[in-house]
Structures are given as structure tokens and as C-alpha cells.
Amino acid sequence: MTEFFATLVTVLDSTIRLSIPLLLACLAGLYSERAGIFDIGLEGKMLAGAFAAGAAAFVTGSAWAGLGMAIVVAVGLALVHGCASITHRGNQIVSGVAINFIAAGSTIILGQAWFAQGGRTPSVAADARFNAIELPGTAAMRDVPILGQLYSELLSGHSILVYLAFLSVPFTWWVLYRTRFGLRLRAVGENPAAVDTAGISVPWLRYRAVICTGILSGAAGAYLALAMNAGFVKDMTAGRGYIALAALIFAKWRPVPAMFACLLFGFLDALSIRLQGAPLPIIGRVPVQLMQALPYILTVILLAGFIGKAIPPRAGGVPYVKER
Amino acid sequence: MSVPYAKLPRWVDYGLIPLINLIVAFAVAGLVVLLVGESPLRAAAIMVEGAFGRGQNIAYTLFYATSFIFTGLAVAVAFHGGLFNIGGEGQAYVGGLGVVLVALNLDGVFPWWVNFPLAVIGAGLAGALWALIPAYLQAKRGSHIVITTIMFNFIAASLMVYLLVDVLKPLGQMAPQTRAFAEGAQLPKLNWIIELFGARIRSAPFNISFLLALLAAFGVWVLIWRTKLGYEIRTQGHSPKAARYAGIGEARIIIITMMISGALAGMMALNPVMGAQNRLQLDFVTGAGFVGIAVALMGRSHPVGIVPAAILFGMLYQGGAEIAFEMPAISRDMIVVIQGLVILFAGALEHMFRPAIQTFFASLGAGKRVTAAREGRV
């Protein structure tokens, strides 16, 4: 029993670790998509952010400089997306695809040119990374059965970005549902003409939304490069941007369910790593590949409307034309 | 404030604007090369030399182009129906399954010219079926096709890894791939065509599926512009409302369009699997499904544009390898950057230069009218 409990805590612990990049990217997508700008470029922004974080942290020796650089680069890409889809009324999907490719290629090219390690950044020293923080009282709580173990193993011992990511869930909820900016943001995603009639600039509002997207996806990248790993490795996002997108749909574009969706997908990931093809009770042996594909399959089933219906923001994907 | 997009002469719309977009994309790619500390002009020279310098290189360029024609056509057909099929990568991957089903079972039985048409059907069918589920979900349940096709790319990747590792791999072999096909499932090479022009080719995988790709391009032209179905597809793409009013079955068109698109993407598998590697390998698609998006956008979804665009990307793939060899600072991933920039400028930012060009042509037109009035002709 205690052994099972210990395993459970380990799996849940890695669930938290693995779901943080999803959560940050998912919340990033939420701002943009709630404002009516589809963003399948989360993957690219995250990847570029991870590279910038790895490079800057290696050069400056400061994790915070890495995070800052990641945010700058990701916001830059978000503005390219904004320029294409808001100002020039281009196809938002096409623009997102383009950003993914530009990020995937240029991170490797620049990494190779600057560091000559086959597209990786050199490994970042421990003091230039976001390290685990011991919450107060961890040592004292360790001996208390169950609750103490949960506190010391599960809640404590994560990097500051993990706590910030979880804090950004209620923060996003507050911004969306309790501020004027949030109300307008949601309105511009549903009916931009109404927002325009009220005398509020639709482009400026949407630009602010994509900037928020850039900040959060940059943070997701920084987490990958400076907290989960010690530096940037090529293609390190490995489809997480798309899983975050899936989680966003799964959560029906709401912040708190988004957190649970990301935790669910993180849990599936942690479980598939833990099991490695070992047989499960009752079900028997499940192929690793099936576990890896499960988030995508679940999202398709959800999209098909078999587990509730996911209705996207109504003006999503449609460029706003002021007159005519 | 917003200027409506007025009509421009056809050659501007289909020639000048895409050309400007393309030049800008390559100029930005040149900046990246400059940033890396190499000369963009020298890189371009190496690339062209590497792609067309010798018969060998031309054969490789056309080999890559073959795959991109298929995937470009796949994306283009879906575009005409107003659908964005990002799932070409997965459909091509699963298309490989259709190819090996034929190849592994019949390669010792029939000669290649019997197996080839069967494999075409197998590949097309497998790709079409992989596109069917997202198509059905879009048509009947309104699930966004972009998201479902992305998800299906990942599901396809997992499925194929599972099949290659646990099912198709012969016993006692380490590498996750099928056994090599016998001669009956190897496509004849077309290298002799290039050798007719006096070039010597040692070995290159340029094969007969290139002709199939050209045939498919012609077939897509006939389908989209010369048949009732094509007319319905274009109507649906232009205005779903008008299509509904005209009594065109929306669900039917979505499903048929996506299945044609999936079949074209699936046929891409013939080229590497039966034409080059003679076995099914892990990740044999290597991004060709995504290159199709760039090819379709660059070729403006018309076969006449898609074939040269595919050859251009074939050139980038082949020439890019040469650049990586000559300039160690630039790896093959430069192609991915160029691909992204082409998608950005020819796709998402296609209207960026339009207002300026419009103003220019409007002022030209106004000038003409003024001269005409002065000469008393109006």
C-alpha cells in the first residue's frame, strides 16, 4: 500500500512537471483565441522562446534574463502573427503554420551558428536555471504520513515557474471575467462589430491579446529550457503546442477547466513514461503509442461532440473589416 | 479606412503579386543567412549548382519534387473546397500502409506494372480513409477540420510507429522497418530521361511516380475546372451560402473533397517507399506533407503553378543538402525556414503589398484617362 502510494506521488509529481508547459501554452492560446485570433503557432512561439531562454541564460548566466529574452522573442513572433492576421487580414491558420516552420528551422540554424553543437545550446549551469524551491516546513512535514508526504513531495520542490503557472490560472480568470479589458476581449472574439460600435479599437484590443499570448508562450518555452531541461535541444517542444491547443478546446476556452485539461494530458504523459509498456491491471498491456496518442484521440472525440460540445469564439479566424 | 480589394489585371494578380511575395520571402531568408555570417549570394549559387549542376542532382531534385507535387495538389484541392487540410503528413504516412499491403503480399507474385496500379489504389485508398474521419466530423458534427487533421497527424504517427515496431517488422530485426521488397514492387527509374541529354547518373531514386504526379496534376485541373463536381467544390469554397442555395449538398462535397485530397497525399508514399527505399521506414514522409502547404500557396492552388513550385522546393531540398556540405554553418534546416517564410509571405501576408500595387495601378489608370481626355478621345 505504501509502495503504491509512493508510486502514485511520483507519477503525480511528474504530472505537474509535464503539465506546466502545456498549461502556460494553453493559457497563452486562450487570450488570443478568446479575442478571435486562432493561433496554431503556439508550438513555434514556445520553441523560439525555449531557444532564446537557453541562449540568453547561457550567455548572461541568469535564469531571469533567459525568461525575459524568451518573452521578447515569443512576443515578437506573436506580433508577426498579429500583423498578418489583424492588420493584413491574412489567413490566421496559414500564418500560424508559417510561424511554426520559421521557429523550427531558425532555432536550429542560429543554434548551430552561435554554439556549434548541432542546434543545441550548451548546457546551462545550475545557477542559471530555475531550480526547485523548498516550501517552508518541508523538512518538518516529511515524516507526517500521507498529508506530509503530499506536501513535501508533491507541492514542494518545484521551480518558481510552476507556482507562477498555477497562479496565472486564477489571474487569467480574474482578467477575463472581472476586468473591463477581459470583458472587451471576450466581446471582440464574439462580435467585433459591436465592440467597434462602442468606440473601442478592434485591432488594438486584438494586438494586446496576442501580446499576452506571446508573454505566456515565451514563459512556457523558458520553462522547457531552464526548468525541465538544462538548455535548449532542437525540437524540444515535441508537439506540446498542439497538445496545449487540444487542451484549450477540451476546456472549451475557459481558464480553470484549461488547468484540469492540461493536468489530465500531463498525467497521461507521466503514466506512459512510468508504464513503458508494462501491463495494467484489468486492461492488460497497453501499447505506449496508444497512451501517447490518447490526448489527440480524446480531443477528436470531444470535437465530434460526444463529450459535450466545444463551441469556439464566434468571430474566431475571421479577420475584421471595419466597413463595406 | 479599409480599402476594398479592387480588381487588378490578371497578370498582376497571378504573376506579379506572387512574384513579389516570393522575392520578399527569399530576401528575408537571405537575411537569416547573413545573420549566420555567410554570403546569401554564394549560398544561392551553391544551391542552384547543387540542384541542377549535374544529371545526378537534377534527378534528385525531381525525385523530391515528385513528392511535393502530390502533397501540393492535396492541399490545393482542399483549398478549392474552402477546407484547410493540414493532415497531408499523416495521410501520406498512412498511405504508405496501403503501399506495403500491396508490396509485401504481391511483390513475388506480379511484375511491377501490375503491382504499381494496385499500389496506387492502395495508397490512395489508405490516404482517403485517413482523411475521411476528419471530413465526416467536419461535415456532420461541425468539428474544425484544421484541428482534427492536426490531431490525425499525431495519431497517424503513433499508429505507424506501433505497426512498424510491433506488427510489420520481421522477427530478429532491430530497425523498425518492413523487409525489403522483391523486384516486383520496385518502381523503374526514370534516370535515362536525364541521361538522354548527355548527363551521367550513377544512382538516383528518380522514378516513374513522377509521371503519375504529372498525370495527377492534369487530373486535378480537369476535376476542378472541367467537371460538375469541380464546379460544386469551387462554389462551396467561394461561398457556402451560395452552394446551399444552389442545392449543393454541403456534407457530400466536404467529404468527397477531403477524400480526394487525402488520396493525393497518400499517393505521395509511392515515391519514397516503392521508388527509393523499397521498404517502409519510420518517418519516411519527412515533412513532405507540410511542404505541400507552401507549394499549394505558392502555386496559387493551380496545377500549372503547383508543378513549378514543387520543383522549386525540390531544388531547395537537394540544393540545401549541398549548402550544408559547403557551408557548415547552414544546415538543411534552412529549408524549413524558407518554407515558413514562403508560407508567411505567399500565404498569410499575400495582401500586404496589394494596397500599394493597387494605388500604383490606379494612378496609372488615372494618368491614362487624363491623357485620353486631353487628346479628345473620351
UniProtKB/TrEMBL annotation, chain A:
<keyword id="KW-1133">Transmembrane helix</keyword>
<feature type="transmembrane region" description="Helical">
    <location>
        <begin position="293"/>
        <end position="311"/>
    </location>
</feature>
<feature type="transmembrane region" description="Helical">
    <location>
        <begin position="253"/>
        <end position="272"/>
    </location>
</feature>
<dbReference type="Pfam" id="PF02653">
    <property type="entry name" value="BPD_transp_2"/>
</dbReference>
<feature type="transmembrane region" description="Helical">
    <location>
        <begin position="160"/>
        <end position="177"/>
    </location>
</feature>
<protein>
    <submittedName>
        <fullName>ABC transporter permease</fullName>
    </submittedName>
</protein>
<feature type="transmembrane region" description="Helical">
    <location>
        <begin position="7"/>
        <end position="31"/>
    </location>
</feature>
<feature type="transmembrane region" description="Helical">
    <location>
        <begin position="93"/>
        <end position="115"/>
    </location>
</feature>
<feature type="transmembrane region" description="Helical">
    <location>
        <begin position="51"/>
        <end position="81"/>
    </location>
</feature>
<keyword id="KW-0812">Transmembrane</keyword>
<dbReference type="GO" id="GO:0005886">
    <property type="term" value="C:plasma membrane"/>
</dbReference>
<keyword id="KW-0472">Membrane</keyword>
<dbReference type="GO" id="GO:0022857">
    <property type="term" value="F:transmembrane transporter activity"/>
</dbReference>
<keyword id="KW-1003">Cell membrane</keyword>
<feature type="transmembrane region" description="Helical">
    <location>
        <begin position="209"/>
        <end position="233"/>
    </location>
</feature>
<dbReference type="InterPro" id="IPR001851">
    <property type="entry name" value="ABC_transp_permease"/>
</dbReference>
TrEMBL record, chain B:
<keyword id="KW-0472">Membrane</keyword>
<feature type="transmembrane region" description="Helical">
    <location>
        <begin position="330"/>
        <end position="349"/>
    </location>
</feature>
<dbReference type="InterPro" id="IPR001851">
    <property type="entry name" value="ABC_transp_permease"/>
</dbReference>
<keyword id="KW-1133">Transmembrane helix</keyword>
<feature type="transmembrane region" description="Helical">
    <location>
        <begin position="253"/>
        <end position="274"/>
    </location>
</feature>
<dbReference type="GO" id="GO:0005886">
    <property type="term" value="C:plasma membrane"/>
</dbReference>
<feature type="transmembrane region" description="Helical">
    <location>
        <begin position="306"/>
        <end position="324"/>
    </location>
</feature>
<feature type="transmembrane region" description="Helical">
    <location>
        <begin position="15"/>
        <end position="37"/>
    </location>
</feature>
<feature type="transmembrane region" description="Helical">
    <location>
        <begin position="280"/>
        <end position="299"/>
    </location>
</feature>
<protein>
    <submittedName>
        <fullName>ABC transporter permease</fullName>
    </submittedName>
</protein>
<feature type="transmembrane region" description="Helical">
    <location>
        <begin position="112"/>
        <end position="133"/>
    </location>
</feature>
<keyword id="KW-1003">Cell membrane</keyword>
<feature type="transmembrane region" description="Helical">
    <location>
        <begin position="145"/>
        <end position="165"/>
    </location>
</feature>
<dbReference type="Pfam" id="PF02653">
    <property type="entry name" value="BPD_transp_2"/>
</dbReference>
<keyword id="KW-0812">Transmembrane</keyword>
<feature type="transmembrane region" description="Helical">
    <location>
        <begin position="58"/>
        <end position="79"/>
    </location>
</feature>
<feature type="transmembrane region" description="Helical">
    <location>
        <begin position="206"/>
        <end position="225"/>
    </location>
</feature>
<dbReference type="GO" id="GO:0022857">
    <property type="term" value="F:transmembrane transporter activity"/>
</dbReference>
